[in-house]
Amino acid sequence: MAKQRRKRGTAGDKTICLPIADGLDYATLVDDREVFRQYLDEQIAAHPELFPEGIEGGYRFHGWVESSRQQIKTRRILLPRTNIKCQVHRGDATARLADCRV
Prior knowledge:
By secondary structure, this protein is an alpha+beta fold. It has 2 helices and 4 strands; from the N terminus they run βααβββ.
C-alpha cells in the first residue's frame, strides 16, 4: 500500500517577519549564518511576540527558500522540541506585515 501524503499547510502559515534596521543589507545578513544567528537572537530577545511558543527552547537552521517572484532568499528554522518549521522573512518582503503569522 502506498504511503499516504501529508496534507500541505496553508500558504503563509509558520512565517516570521523580522524588522530589518535601516542600513542593514538583508541579502548579506541571510548569507552569513553566524551574523544571521546573532541578529535572530537579538530579535527574539527584543520582539518575542513575533516568534512561536517554544523558541526559548532553541532553534536550528533548516535550509533555504528562494523566491523567484520576489527575488529574495529566506532562511528556515526548526524548533527541535516542538518540530515546528518556520520561514524567516524580512518585514518588508510581503505586502502586509499583518499577513505574517506563526
